[in-house]
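chain below, 324 aa
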Amino acid sequence: MKKIDGHLHLVKTIAGLNGKGRLNALGDGKAIWDDGTVIQLVPKGAGDDSFTAEAALSLMDQADVEKAVLLQGSLNGYQNYYSYQMVKKYPERFIAAFSVDPFADHALAIVKRHVEDLGFRAIKFEISQGGGLHGYHSEKPFRLDTDAKVGQIFHYLADFPGFTVTVDYGSSEQISYQPEAIANLAARYPLMDFVVCHLSFPAADHLYRLRAALELFAPHPNIATDLSAIQDIIGETDFPYPKCHEAVAIAKELLGPKRLIWGTDSPWSATFNSYENLANWLSASDLFSEDELADVLYHNADRIYFKDRAVKAAAEAVDPALIN
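prediction:
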């Protein structure tokens, strides 16, 4: 069955930044934060101090993954321009979102460049306290739906119907956790698509908390959620991850299968569980019918992230002789 990895990171140069400081490459796929924490960022054999497009494509091809959505995050450091280059190099395999620190002096100019000059149609807000903006802007906690600097960006993006906004707001223990803000923004901007990363960070022992968040999203058809990295979040390494199945079952009940997007959050997540297992765990479950599984594994990401290409392809398919 065809697959689109709806949450993948390329890493040309490790440039991570979060509450632990800067992330520096050590080789053999390892990296060290300024506070001394060492992590295995890249799966062994997939890159010494990088995770290139070619390394990603090798893993994807082995798992029969046709395309991927390239997202940015503070863990790796924003790889905006490299992602842009790889979309241009492999247009049939990749689409990309960009990221920006909204509190940078030139944030709006950066957004305009990526949208108007480089043609991005998706933005990723990595605001989590554990790994994103709230880890190094904790002196001033902010909400996506009320902050003036973030509001400038949304006001600008409102002029681009169909734009996709992807958000990682971390777990419920973090000050960055704000499912209410996503519901408010989806109501405010009904022509935008919103994707909440990592199934809103489910905790296996607190599934009512997950249910409460997803119930906020349910009335808004322009909110979807990706299922990436929930193995890491729940702490499962035994395929096919039965505790993850419980969380996904709740998401299917409340949002339906057309609002769920499969993804892996590689390369880091592929250091805990193999990319092959991450690619096949939903197929090994009985959560979805064949048609529903096709939506989750492929069609939903295609509809939400690749929509601009679909419009262009449809236009190109029209016989010019029929156009007045």
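Confidence is low (pLDDT under 50) at residues 319-324. The CA atoms of residues 254 and 323 lie 43 Å apart.
thats it, cya
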